[in-house]
Write a structure and sequence with these properties.
This protein is of the alpha+beta class. It contains 20 helices and 25 strands. It is elongated and about 95 Å long.
């Protein structure tokens, strides 16, 4: 159609005011998505009304019936018509009230929206009234109020949801799916309000009946399952008077991380929310403890002044905006990190069938004070300085230690040829002046250590048998040491006598230019040497000492970071990870360096070397997991051994 051709243009239509019913149904499209939305809005109204007991009845997944009954303050007879009128509320009266909302509901559109797409009935009685009153509606048809009998409180019955909007009803899922979403919605609300008794009945069957006046921990365990109690760590940060934010919650050990985020529950002033700030803080706290594709089991309850959070940013109030998001991030991150650091995160395996479960169950020691392993404390700066000393102490002309953080024997490397281009018989790397052995914390060593198939290390502690993956543990040790060392400056590098030429793709050459500052930090000097090649002129001394070839390493590094960026993008976005890209890449590169340099499965070790590795396990934070999040250590408890041999 040419600009002059307007024969097919639509005719101008007059502007009309929508009817109240159409306007309410449009609003209902945002507020009422499915039966679970009805459950959420009605139960929140009950809580705002001061109820101490709430019962929810469902039929056909809530599509045919949702009834919410409470013992709250009720609705006066004259207010019943206003209860289903659009934008009518008792919770907000002026613009300034929006700055300190202390109720779950406040917009005055929930009941009106629900009424416009269902057959609704409200029966209510106030404490001052001797009888109850009922108001019924069907779409925009409102019946006269009539007296009835009933206890103090309110009962709202919603039948035939979307009966007058068949297109919306057609998009509902199966009965079991809708019922499950109603269950999850009520579970989240019940978890946030342990003082309120909550009962769920579906198709005349009681699903759960939670008593009132529970503690937050009792309510959480009732809903998540008491069998998880040994695997949940208490998180608490009471800084309300000083910083305006207090926190209580339970966080799961890495072993019970899930494939989805359904086991993550975050509440702000009693409101279930999804928030990227909190998600990112959790991601940071669990970094290196769980695999990137998994989510920790978490229940966090944040309390703060209503003025410190804006709850009016989402139609269903599922998201909030913090006035000071950095403060919230700091409180969550430090509280969860402290709980994880203080806990024994070693998972336990047990399977009567003989096959190990995909994700082992972790237990916390009942009496940690009796364990051979002493509680781990963060190393001091002097201890860390000694700990990273092994990165500097080497002589390429002699066999190099895998680990050298004490003044005694070190782990010997795997025999192999000296990398091409390494200058023999010279080293300009200075040895630290502080003896490493004097700086490391004293940790009592296990008295019996056995290497199995040159891959696993077996010992014991107060809880049972401890099995260690020697490569995964050494990888964590290397990673933490490299991370600490690179924080002090660039890693030491070794100049090659002649550049090593590596074939490269156009993408790898492009990434080489992007990553030059990062490569300099880790001791790699490389530059393009033609349209399809890269010349490596210097390589990290540490990797030379571990017989890592420069060419294959750089090729893998350029491919690895590219793949990691692509593979982890969705995971980071879901978790709200907006941290600096260079820092993420640095961790990926250091992780790769640690993996290449670590002891491999099949490497035999002497008794002294085994003892040294187990000593480092106690000196390094997060030694229970490798940098990828997989476990380095598994415990078979005495109780599980007794079961295996028929003693339990």
């Amino acid at each position: 159609m040419t600009p002059a051709d307007t024969s097919s243009a639509p005719a101008t239509r007059p502007i009309r005011v929508l009817s109240n019913l159409v306007a309410s149904q449009i609003a209902a499209g945002e507020v009422v998505e499915r039966p679970a939305s009805v459950v959420k809005e009605l139960v929140e109204n009950s809580i705002d009304a001061g109820a101490t007991r709430v019962q929810v009845d469902l039929e056909q997944g809530g599509v045919e019936l949702v009834r919410v009954t409470d013992n709250g303050g009720g609705i006066a007879k004259d207010d019943l018509p206003l209860a289903i009128a659009p934008h009518a509320t008792s919770k907000v009266s002026s613009l300034t009230d929006l700055d300190h909302i202390a109720t779950l509901g406040f917009r005055g559109e929930a009941l009106a929206s629900i009424a416009s797409v269902s057959r609704l009935a409200i029966r209510s009685r106030t404490p001052a009234s001797h009888e109850a009153f009922e108001l019924a509606s069907e779409g925009d048809q409102i019946q006269p109020i009539r007296p009835t009998s009933g206890p103090v409180g309110t009962s709202v019955t919603v039948r035939n949801l979307f009966f007058n909007t068949p297109a919306r009803r057609k998009f509902l899922r199966t009965i079991s799916t809708e019922q499950g979403r109603c269950h999850d919605t009520l579970l989240a609300i019940a978890m946030a309000h342990p003082l309120i008794g909550v009962r769920l009945v579906t198709d005349a069957k009681v699903v759960f009946d939670l008593p009132p006046d529970q503690t937050p921990q009792e309510r959480i365990l009732d809903l998540l399952g008491k069998e998880l109690e040994p695997e949940l760590l208490v998180v608490q940060s009471d800084q309300h008077d000083v910083r305006g934010v207090s926190l209580f919650g339970l966080v799961g050990t890495p072993s019970i991380a899930r494939a989805t985020n359904k086991s993550q529950h975050v509440f702000v002033n009693g409101r279930p929310v999804r928030d990227r700030t909190v998600q990112h803080a959790l991601l940071q706290a669990y970094r290196g403890l769980i695999e990137p594709s998994r989510y920790p089991t978490v229940v966090l309850m944040l309390e703060m002044s209503p003025e410190a959070v804006d709850v009016n940013v989402h139609p269903t109030k599922a998201e909030v905006r913090f006035r000071d998001s950095s403060l919230v991030h700091s409180v969550v991150y430090h509280a969860v990190s402290r709980a994880l650091r203080a806990a024994d995160l070693t998972p336990t395996y047990f399977s009567l069938g003989g096959s190990a479960p995909t994700h082992p169950t972790a237990v916390l020691p009942a009496t940690p004070e009796s364990s051979v392993i002493e509680p781990r404390t963060p190393p001091s700066p002097q201890q860390m300085e000694a700990f990273v000393g092994f990165l500097q102490r080497f002589d390429p002309s002699t066999p190099q230690p895998m680990l050298s953080t004490t003044g005694g024997a070190a782990l010997s490397p795997v025999e192999g040829p000296t990398p091409t281009g390494v200058p023999v018989g010279s080293s300009e790397i200075a040895t630290p002046s502080t003896p490493a052995g004097s700086a490391l914390p004293e940790v009592r060593r296990a008295d019996r250590i056995l290497q199995v198939h040159n891959s696993y290390v077996v010992t014991q502690d107060a809880q049972g048998v401890v099995i260690v993956d020697q490569h995964a543990l050494h990888e964590r040790v290397m990673f933490e040491a490299l991370l600490a060392r690179v924080g002090k400056g660039n890693l030491e590098s070794q100049q090659l006598l002649s550049p090593e030429i590596v074939e490269a793709t156009a993408d790898q050459l492009g990434r080489l230019e992007e990553m030059k500052p990062l490569l300099t930090r880790v001791g790699i000097e490389a530059e393009p040497a033609g349209p399809r090649s890269i010349a490596i002129r210097a390589f990290p001394s540490f990797l030379f000492s571990r017989n890592v070839e420069p060419g294959p390493f750089l090729a893998d590094l350029l491919s690895l970071t590219d793949d990691n960026e692509e593979a982890s993008r969705d995971t980071r976005l879901k978790a709200g990870d907006t941290g600096p890209r260079d820092e993420r890449l640095l961790r990926d590169v250091l992780d790769m360096m640690a993996c290449k340099a670590a002891i491999k499965a099949g490497d035999a070790m002497s008794d002294l070397e085994l003892n040294e590795l187990m000593r480092l396990r106690e000196a390094v934070e997060r030694s229970s997991n490798c940098p990828h999040g997989r476990p380095t250590t598994v415990r078979l408890t005495i109780r599980e051994l007794d079961k295996l041999f028929g003693r339990g």
